[in-house]
Amino acid sequence: MESSSTAGARCRNCGTHVTQQFARVFGDNGDVVHGCPACTTYREMQSGGHLPGE
Question: Known Pfam families for this protein (predicted)?
Answer without folding.
Answer: DUF7563
